[in-house]
Specification:
Largest sheet: 7 strands, antiparallel
Distance between the termini: 99 Å
Structural class: alpha+beta
Radius of gyration: 33 Å
Number of helices: 12
Oligomer: single chain
Helix content: 10-25%
Number of strands: 25
């Protein structure tokens, strides 16, 4: 008990010594405090006793003058107490919380100066034609026609220069259906640009500035090296007010079910992202591009601290595809379809928690079947990277080059094993010809083809899908006006089964005022009859 009391007394004395030394107390308060300390002296050792109080009768000695420091502030706040030992740091080496007043007062200005010139504004324009409200009326059509006069619709976003030759990455929705795309640099220069590649499912597009000049760039970093809590900067042109930089941290990784696009592996950040920031840069503290700002979660239209960015490793794969001349991003083919592992599935398989992606079907003769993967197997990791959900597997596979071999950790029949799967190009069908439907019918202007694994992959459709699919429905065509969409599978027209593009072309050339057809959209059969 005595040792415990002595420890408490020593702790209290140490705290009081600090307080007494750091505060200017009145004389009466100093005398009371000194008396209390003297009462504690019998309980403590000599090493904790305070120094003798100075003789108050003697005149106070002037404090030594501080050394002259160039450009020193007039008044300097007292430095924080230094810990006796370095604070333990959590996370990977090189990451730690800011320590000390000096580190908190550091500026992002050098980083913005380095990267800001490579973030550009993207202006997209398109002519929009609408169907006349009098279309279909024999009397008013002769005066007003079937088409309304075109109007110009514009959109504003951001982009990032990733190659000195002027290759720019932005979001697909920024340049969707654009007839003209211009790029404005931070220094005021403007250039025409052309679209090299666009992928709606990833919401990414690659542009090329029409100029031989060399441009500033931001290097593409490794988004897999990010950790929750890392500092990041978002640079873009929100609301068209000009280039703006906001700071924040990585709030989460591998976000899916965001509802932005088919892509399901986003970086979440609380750096303010607003309309117009789309396509802008998310950079780390080394000045590397770690993401393309894409969307926000908001009820008001403004930032509430929940923003999403496409990881830079996905961006790198898309840019490399554009450099090789591809007009669409081609994903590696494994010959398997996967689904999410639910809590019920995890319990049935004896898993501690839901994770990974379960194999639902295999493509006969595909790489997955050759490697020994079977329906019901659960893919847990890819090249050592954990697979949190089925969208994470899709992301990991998409960032791998075609022709490479990946290693899966698989849970099969209650046991874990490793298998190696070769990633190949998706096989083509017997007939890959795209047919433009001519004539004067509801299908006129649509581009159709027979589905194959490669075409299904390009259109982000199930690999088992078959039939005659609409690959593209250009704006202003009768097919677009009647509401047909890409990925619609035409099953039947006027009682005739559509099994090839040539069959649809033949049927569409017939003269008819009434059209009855059946299409499959997102797995649902839709039947309609209309007068044309």
């Amino acid at each position: 008990m005595g040792g415990r009391m002595m420890g408490l007394a020593r702790g209290a004395l140490s705290a009081l010594v600090i307080v007494a030394g750091g505060l200017a107390l009145p004389a009466q308060a100093q005398e009371g405090l000194r008396g209390f300390l003297e009462d504690l002296l019998p309980f403590i050792g000599d090493e904790h006793k305070p120094a003798p109080a100075p003789d108050t009768a003697q005149p106070p000695q002037a404090a030594p003058a501080p050394e002259a420091v160039p450009d020193a502030p007039i008044a300097k706040a007292p430095a924080p107490l230094a810990p006796s030992e370095p604070l333990p740091q959590a996370g990977e080496p090189g990451r730690r919380v800011p320590f000390g007043r000096g580190e908190i007062q550091l500026s992002f200005a050098p980083l913005v100066t380095q990267t800001g010139p490579a973030v550009v504004n993207v202006y997209a324009k398109q002519q929009v034609r609408a169907r006349s409200p009098f279309a279909g009326d024999p009397f008013f059509e002769q005066f007003f026609g079937r088409q309304m006069p075109p109007r110009v619709q514009s959109s504003l976003g951001s982009g990032v220069i990733v190659d000195p030759s002027g290759i720019i990455v932005t979001n697909f929705h920024v340049i969707r259906d654009a007839d003209e795309v211009k790029v404005a640099l931070a220094d005021g220069r403007e250039f025409e640009s052309r679209i090299l590649l666009k992928d709606e499912s990833l919401d990414l597009a690659v542009l090329k500035i029409e100029s031989d000049d060399a441009f500033p760039v931001i290097g593409i970093g490794d988004s897999d090296a990010l950790a929750v809590g890392d500092l990041v900067l978002a640079i873009g042109n929100p609301f068209g007010v000009g280039q703006t930089t906001t700071s924040g941290i990585v709030s989460a990784l591998a976000r899916n079910h965001v509802g932005i696009s088919d892509f399901g592996f986003f970086i979440q950040t609380d750096a303010a992202i607003n309309p117009g920031n789309s396509g802008g840069a998310l950079i780390d503290m080394s000045g590397n591009l770690v993401g393309i700002n894409t969307a926000i979660f908001s009820r008001s239209g403004g930032s509430i601290g929940i923003g999403f960015a496409i990881p830079s490793n996905m961006v790198r794969a898309v840019v490399e595809s554009a450099r090789q001349g591809g007009d669409a991003f081609e994903r590696p083919f494994v010959g398997a379809e996967f689904d999410a592992v639910t809590a019920q599935i995890a319990e049935a398989l004896g898993m501690a928690r839901p994770r990974g992606a379960i194999v639902t079907s295999l493509f006969e003769g595909g790489p997955a079947e050759k490697a020994g993967l079977a329906p019901g197997d659960v893919v847990l990791t890819l090249n050592g990277a954990p697979i949190q959900h089925v969208d994470a597997l899709g992301y990991r596979l998409a960032t791998q080059p075609i022709g490479s071999t990946v290693t899966f950790d698989v849970l099969s029949k209650g046991k874990e094993r490793q298998i190696e799967v070769e990633l190949v190009r998706a096989p083509e069908g017997a007939n890959e010809t795209i047919v433009d439907i001519p004539g004067d019918s509801p299908f006129a202007g649509a581009k159709v083809a027979e589905l194959s694994p490669r075409l299904a992959q390009r259109l982000r459709m199930p690999g088992s899908a078959s039939g005659v699919v609409m690959v593209d429905v250009p704006r202003g065509t009768p097919a677009a006006q009647f509401g047909f969409r890409p990925r619609d599978i035409v099953r039947e027209v006027n009682g005739e089964t559509i099994d090839t593009p040539q069959t649809l072309e033949k049927v569409a050339m017939t003269k008819s005022r009434w059209w009855r057809f059946t299409i499959e959209r997102d797995g649902n059969l839709l039947q309609q009859m209309l007068r044309y």
